[in-house]
């Protein structure tokens, strides 16, 4: 009796002594946005993929710079023009103890069109014609035509267990019954707009992660998220606003992490024969569309002082952009020079084009879609007024902006575009290729830009399997579109994370994801 | 009495009907929800399939009648964003808002009415002037700003209270509430005070105005002449007489707080319905918008009904007639 009391007493003491380390194994993260569902095939939303990555693995993974690395597949190669072969990782187990094999991948690909929602995941399987399981560790995917970017698409292919069958939908996943993945964390609980609670999976193939329990708390309001960090309710927050970032620089109790993002603010001048909103000189609508003249587009570009945008308007949280993707992305052209600011040359070009006194133009931007979009919008309008233009700038809520932009109602717009896949086909194919519903190109080309030379080079690239040759062609295509000022890139936005000083160690990611399993206690 | 209730219910049905038409036409005028939600990389084909799948290619009147048909079968629809039924989505967040509003109106009434009575009883005293000055602050300073100040002071600097969230919840009667745990109370108290300030200011001013007017009224002078103690005059005669406007405003405020506590909910990251509806509007999640607003209309009608019933109880001259 005495012995057991003693023993339990010692055990209690040991537990007490161990308590601080137990505490250190919990990580609470305050995030601007969370998932809309626990079903990984429901939506392409970035915050959804980011959250569910903890529970489910993707077939192919990406590093901090968005370049491909092995995930559940250890290697992949194109064995002929329309067939990709993926080799599966051996010895991977689902959270329920069952084995992972190629059947689960096939099941996941086939499940997507059955269950996906209004932000459809079919986007990532659109090239898949059929899937064949050669053996448990080998999967062959037949594609519709040549699909060099299939491994990139499969960076968003989350693998669920084929044992769950086709029936489970969002409710079953949200309740946890069907939320069985191979990822570094097991699902504990979630409610819409609330906390996502995760628990460490000790048998994870990539090694068990550092934190035992991770709580991903959705705190949409910027000020509330900062307050939660300062009051110690959370250990780490993402999307720190620029103003708070400045004050955090002088606060030794906090530490910040800054990284370029994939998002670039691009100006899109409409080059259609008739501009949607009239461009005027002395109140009279001008003949034709001045923006069709390359000299006018160059003048607009030259009048932008990108250093001022970065250092003054964005409080230093940006990088000047000279093309639609950040450096190091697949198809980024090193040959393009940095954009110059030269107001005199801009004025001369405008005069040469026949508008010595400028013109009046509408300019529409998104508001609060990404940090800084509205202020950059106003700053641009002022920069162009130095050129002699009268710019009616308007920053609109996404709810109003996107449907109207899709109807192509604006003459000149600015919005953010993120190269989420890390390669050029995604960005240039959607934005600067001639609109072609059949090939699936140009679906976000709202300016009417169409250059046969660009289409030819880009098209050739999209039909080239050899990565090196494809990269060269994409670089060439980037140069053509940028020299044409098809779109005018302004700044690459940066993202800031903040944590209590000396508590965690993390490498910020260009895709802005906050991956708990890549964060280490310090 | 019965005719009166039936009339009120019919009124509610008409309002609900009109409101749902307005939301449908409004969303239709803004544009296609798919264009707001869709991923930038989607092809034209995917987009058109989606529009068909959600029935957004049909004419507006047809979409509307499909919706009405489903409502009559008890189905308010599924959220386009969450793909779970709208009823379970709204009811999963309603308790959080209810408890916040309950605590906040209680604080407003318990502090506001006595303060107003006192300010009206001794209108020239220093305390009364102070109360009136503070009441002006209560409804003129923006809620979110006071909320941020409270957080800065009590959560960040002093560290006494958590900066946001709902805290622990425990089962109480039929639903889970944070009012059943100490940790929950520590979370609810700051947002509740923040939310109560506007109402408190309003109640103070209303009560005081009524009080000042009543103090000069004949029945008060008569009661005084009779030698009744002030306490009895104030609490059993004046309070009863000035209750009608106070209760009217209280009812309206209760309704609007329940429906639109969104500012406080955002600042304190409170998981209530206010944030849900704002997000639904931003994403054009039409099923959630329509269903939520239908519930709000029903709520307002119910509160007004209760207020009317209380009138009749307080003032025997008020008669409830059918349909009025």
Q: How many structural units, i.e. domains of chain A? A: 2
**Radius of gyration of chain A (Å):** 26 Å
Counted by DSSP, the helix tally of chain A is 15
CATH classification class of the largest domain in chain A = Alpha Beta
- Helix/strand structural class of chain A: alpha+beta
Examine the secondary-structure arrangement and name the CATH architecture of the largest domain in chain A.
3-Layer(aba) Sandwich
Number of strands of chain A: 21
> Termini separation of chain A (Å)?
43 Å
Radius of gyration of chain B: 24 Å
> Overall 3D geometry of chain A?
globular
Mean pLDDT of chain B: 84
Assign an overall shape of chain B: globular
Biggest beta sheet summary of chain B = 2 strands, antiparallel
| Biggest sheet character of chain A | 11 strands, mixed
Q: What's the quick description here?
A:
The complex is a heterodimer of chains A (about 525) and B (about 325). With about 525 residues, chain A is α+β, with helices and mostly antiparallel strands. Helices cover about 30% and strands about 25% of the residues of chain A.
């Amino acid at each position: 009796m005495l012995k057991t009391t003693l023993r339990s007493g010692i055990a209690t003491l040991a537990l007490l002594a161990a308590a601080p380390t137990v505490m250190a194994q919990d990580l609470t993260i305050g995030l601007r946005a969370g998932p809309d569902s626990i079903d990984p095939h429901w939506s392409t939303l970035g915050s959804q993929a980011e959250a569910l990555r903890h529970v489910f693995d993707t077939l192919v993974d990406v590093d901090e710079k968005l370049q491909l690395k092995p995930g559940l597949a250890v290697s992949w190669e194109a064995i002929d023009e329309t067939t990709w072969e993926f080799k599966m990782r051996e010895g991977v187990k689902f959270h329920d103890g069952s084995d992972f094999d190629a059947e689960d991948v096939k099941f996941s690909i086939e499940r997507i069109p059955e269950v996906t929602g209004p932000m459809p995941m079919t986007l990532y399987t659109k090239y898949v014609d059929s899937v064949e399981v050669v053996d448990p560790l080998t999967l062959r995917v037949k594609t519709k035509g040549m699909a060099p970017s299939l491994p990139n698409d499969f960076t968003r292919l989350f693998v669920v267990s084929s044992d769950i069958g086709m029936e489970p939908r969002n409710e079953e996943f949200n309740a946890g019954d069907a939320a069985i993945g191979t990822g570094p964390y097991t699902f504990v609980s979630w409610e819409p707009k609330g906390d996502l609670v995760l628990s460490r999976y000790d048998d994870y193939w990539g090694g068990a992660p550092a934190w035992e329990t991770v709580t991903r708390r959705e705190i949409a309001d910027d000020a509330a998220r900062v307050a939660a960090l300062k009051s110690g309710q959370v250990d780490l927050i993402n999307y720190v606003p620029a103003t708070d970032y400045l004050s955090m620089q002088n606060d030794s109790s906090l530490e910040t992490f800054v990284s370029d993002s994939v998002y670039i603010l691009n100006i899109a001048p409409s080059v259609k024969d008739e501009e949607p909103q009239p461009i005027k000189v002395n109140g009279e609508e001008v003949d034709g569309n001045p923006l069709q003249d390359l000299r006018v587009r160059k003048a607009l570009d030259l009048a932008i002082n990108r250093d001022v945008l970065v250092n003054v308007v964005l409080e230093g949280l940006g990088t000047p952009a000279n093309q639609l993707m950040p450096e190091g992305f697949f198809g980024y052209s090193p040959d393009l020079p940095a954009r110059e600011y030269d107001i005199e040359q801009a004025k001369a070009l405008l005069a040469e084009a026949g508008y010595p006194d400028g013109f009046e133009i509408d300019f529409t931007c998104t508001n609060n879609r990404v940090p800084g979009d509205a202020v950059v919008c106003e700053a641009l309008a002022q920069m162009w007024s130095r050129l002699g233009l009268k710019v009616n700038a308007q920053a609109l809520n996404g709810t109003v902006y996107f449907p109207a932009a899709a109807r192509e109602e604006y003459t000149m717009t600015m919005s953010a575009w993120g190269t989420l896949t890390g390669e050029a086909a995604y960005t240039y194919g959607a934005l600067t290729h001639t609109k072609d519903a059949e090939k699936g190109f140009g679906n976000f080309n709202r300016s009417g830009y169409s250059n046969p030379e660009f289409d030819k080079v880009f098209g050739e690239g999209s039909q080239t399997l050899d990565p090196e040759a494809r990269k060269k062609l994409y670089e060439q295509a980037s140069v053509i579109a940028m020299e044409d000022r098809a779109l005018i890139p302004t700044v690459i936005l940066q993202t800031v994370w903040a944590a209590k000083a000396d508590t965690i160690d993390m490498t910020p990611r260009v895709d802005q994801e906050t991956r708990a399993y890549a964060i280490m206690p310090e | 009495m019965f005719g009166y209730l039936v009339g009120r219910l019919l009124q509610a049905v008409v309002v609900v009907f009109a409101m749902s038409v307005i939301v449908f036409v409004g969303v239709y005028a803004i544009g296609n929800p798919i264009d707001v939600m869709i991923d930038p990389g989607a092809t034209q084909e995917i987009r058109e399939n989606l529009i068909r799948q959600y029935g957004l290619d049909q004419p507006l009147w047809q979409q509307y009648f499909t919706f009405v048909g489903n409502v009559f079968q008890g189905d308010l629809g599924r959220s386009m964003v969450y793909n779970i039924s709208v009823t379970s989505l709204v009811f999963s967040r309603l308790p959080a808002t209810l408890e916040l509003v309950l605590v906040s109106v209680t604080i407003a009434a318990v502090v506001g009415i006595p303060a107003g009575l006192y300010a009206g009883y001794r209108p020239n005293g220093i305390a009364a002037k102070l109360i009136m000055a503070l009441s002006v602050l209560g409804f003129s300073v923006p809620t979110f700003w006071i909320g941020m100040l409270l957080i800065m002071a009590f959560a960040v600097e002093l560290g006494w209270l958590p900066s946001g969230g709902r805290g622990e919840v425990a089962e109480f009667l039929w639903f889970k509430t944070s009012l059943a745990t100490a940790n929950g109370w520590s979370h609810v108290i700051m947002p509740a005070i923040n939310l109560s300030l506007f109402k408190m200011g309003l109640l103070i001013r209303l009560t005081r105005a009524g009080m000042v007017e009543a103090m000069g009224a004949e029945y008060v002078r008569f009661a005084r002449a009779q030698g009744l103690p002030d306490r009895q005059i104030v609490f059993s005669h004046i309070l009863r007489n000035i209750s009608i406007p106070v209760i009217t405003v209280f009812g309206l405020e209760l309704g609007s707080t329940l429906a639109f506590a969104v500012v406080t909910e955002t600042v304190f990251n409170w998981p209530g319905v206010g944030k849900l509806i704002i997000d639904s509007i931003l994403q054009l999640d039409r099923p959630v918008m329509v269903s939520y607003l239908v519930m709000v209309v029903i709520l307002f009608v119910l509160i007004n009904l209760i207020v009317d019933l209380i009138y009749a109880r307080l003032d025997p001259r008020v008669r409830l007639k059918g349909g009025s």
